Amino acid sequence: MHTISLNNKQFTAEANDTILQAAEKAGESIYSECRGGFCGACKCKLKSGETIGVRDAIAFLPEGYVLACSVKANSNLVLELDY
């Protein structure tokens, strides 16, 4: 289990959860349109930590960003939302 800090709110992620799944389980909101076909809405700036990709993303990501639906925590993470 890893701790995720998202805009200064903390929650934990189980080994099999993507960041998006962990946030949803904790009642934290990350805007996403993954289920609606719009890739890129759930992007987060990775401030510190390491992630593991679980699927390829089709959205363009600037350097230092991850898609919350496509990665799992491989360490404790600090993330920031742009919105």
TrEMBL record:
CDD domains linked to this entry: fer2
InterPro entries: 2Fe-2S_ferredoxin-like_sf, 2Fe-2S_ferredoxin-type, 2Fe2S_fd_BS, Beta-grasp_dom_sf
Species the sequence originates in: Vibrio kanaloae
PROSITE patterns assigned to the protein according to its UniProt record, in alphabetical order: 2FE2S_FER_1, 2FE2S_FER_2
SUPFAM superfamilies documented for this protein: 2Fe-2S ferredoxin-like (SSF54292)
Record protein name field: 2Fe-2S iron-sulfur cluster binding domain-containing protein
One GO MF term: 2 iron, 2 sulfur cluster binding
Positions of the 2Fe-2S ferredoxin-type domain: 2-83
Pfam families on file: Fer2
Transmembrane stretches, start-end: none
